[in-house]
Amino acid sequence: MLILTNVLIAYLIGSIPTAFWVGKYFHGIDIREHGSKNAGATNTFRVLGKKSGWFVLSVDVLKGVAAATLPYWFQSQLIGFKDELLIMQLSASFSAVFGHVFPIFAGFRGGKGVATSLGIVIGLNPLAAAICLGVFIIVFISSKYVSLGAITAAFVFPFVSYFILKNDIRIMIIFTIVLSFLVIVAHRKNISRLLKGEENKMNLLRKKT
To answer: Please, which residues have CB within 8 angstroms of residue 128's CB and are 6 or more apart in sequence?
Structure first.
């Protein structure tokens, strides 16, 4: 029951449709009908501008941090079996990403879970998050493709966790691989456009027209 409660709360946190609500209540549009039709921070930057984009990005990252740290609120109720806290953290993390992609508050049409995944990694291991964020920034700045930066960062995440941070707990290895896989699969259309040379570039320094 404790794990179920943890997972349910994390799902509701992940289901907060930041981009959808910002578009609807502050700009009078459904962000999912414009731009890339994705309810995420990148499309918010493109369609609604930098202020809305940074707000959506910040909240979506915080959703992940909140989900990954949620089990600490239940510590007094933990039984104490091996890796119990970590298992609760990982189950809450997956639930939050699932909620972001399939939000109950927005008709189960959400974003791709990248920002929320970043927040989860921050909550679990800030150093791993910093390294992956650095990879994202380098790839994004050099290519101007947000999707390529996200895909690359997701791909290197399991390697960073295992080889650099020496995290060899089996459940953590499985978690990093699955989370990486989910983020990459969420970008399958972007991968197709990248291979065809049809993916849109993005420049945060340029003003929205």
So the answer is: 121, 157, 160, 161, 164, 165
- Cα distances (Å, whole numbers) of residue 157 to 26, 80, 120: 35, 28, 12
Q: Which two tokens stand for residue 30?
A: 């459904």
Q: How many CA atoms lie within 13 A of 203 on its CB side?
A: 5
Q: How far apart are CA 195 and CA 36, in angstroms?
A: 17
Nearest Cα to Cα of residue 175 among 63, 110, 101, 89: 89
Tokens for 198? 């049809």
Q: What is the pTM of this model?
A: 0.92
Alpha carbon dihedral 109, 115, 118, 119, in 10-degree steps, equals: -90
Encode pLDDT of 71-107 as tens digits: 999 888 887 777 899 999 999 999 999 999 999 999 9
Q: Is 83 left (phi over 0), alpha (psi -120 to 50) or beta?
A: left
What is the identity of the amino acid at 119? G
* Cβ count within 10 A of residue 188: 10
> Which two three-digit tokens encode residue 147?
């999707």
Structure tokens at 38: 């994705």
